[in-house]
Inverse folding.
């Protein structure tokens, strides 16, 4: 099974100069766990719930005073639509990420999350083992 078969295609993006409180509202309103940060067509990073917990809430910072650029993860690990799902899961495990932006011709075309992978567990026992490892890891 290919990544393109399981990825979320409607990826929500935000600009790096967006106020963190606005980003939180977007995530809450849409019921999502991350936003990809894109400026002028170029992907700059990702802001996740964990970023918000560790870089805003834990440090008691005011989300109205911070920009997404200050809290986003800049080390972006990406995949490709034609990757096999187990390859994407292995990459996520090795790089310790739970969200994998999917890029084609330098453009975001989708996002694969641990949830997407978990939905395919019945397909492949090797994949099931990888999902279990991913769900028990802690992001950097």
């Amino acid at each position: 099974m290919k990544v393109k078969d399981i990825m979320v295609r409607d990826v929500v993006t935000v600009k790096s100069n967006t106020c963190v409180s606005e980003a939180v509202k977007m995530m809450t309103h849409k019921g999502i766990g991350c936003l990809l940060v894109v400026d002028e067509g170029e992907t700059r990073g990702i802001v996740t719930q964990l970023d918000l917990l560790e870089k805003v809430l834990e440090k008691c910072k005011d989300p109205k005073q911070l920009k997404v650029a200050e809290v986003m993860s800049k080390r972006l690990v990406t995949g490709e639509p034609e990757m096999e799902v187990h390859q994407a899961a292995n990459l996520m495990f090795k790089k310790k990420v739970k969200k994998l932006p999917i890029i084609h011709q330098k453009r975001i075309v989708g996002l694969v999350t641990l949830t997407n992978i978990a939905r395919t567990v019945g397909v492949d026992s090797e994949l099931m083992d990888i999902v279990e490892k991913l769900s028990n890891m802690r992001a950097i």
Remarks:
- Residues 31 and 62 are 22 Å apart (CA to CA).
